[in-house]
Here is the input.
Amino acid sequence: FSTMKYHNNSNSMIMFGGNNGQGDNFGDLWKFDLGKMQWHELKSSSFEVIPDRFSVSSYMDQANNEFYIFGGNSKNGIQNDLWKFSLDSFQWKSLTTQGDVPLPRYRHAYNEFLDSEGKLFFVVF
Here is the structure.
């Protein structure tokens, strides 16, 4: 159960994580160029690296070239953390959130929407 999102700026799909069905989780990030029909692994240049996991939810911030990951299942158990990968700097960053945080989860769904003032909201369920 990996996650994949379309990236407008590069006409590509960005894929993260997954599991091989034999207990091995992945934390790798891949780009599939739809024009060239070619895969390319995106290696992080940061010291901070997201732990391997599967069954996460993800969001692609097209305007800022950022890919977000929430939750999932890892060897450390079910997670409720939020991570951001910059497609410009190739760096992962663990994000500190405020307020109530959703309980740890995997195989979950989410949706995003803009309110009447243009603020972006995420609903995780």
Summary: DSSP finds no helices and ten strands in the chain.
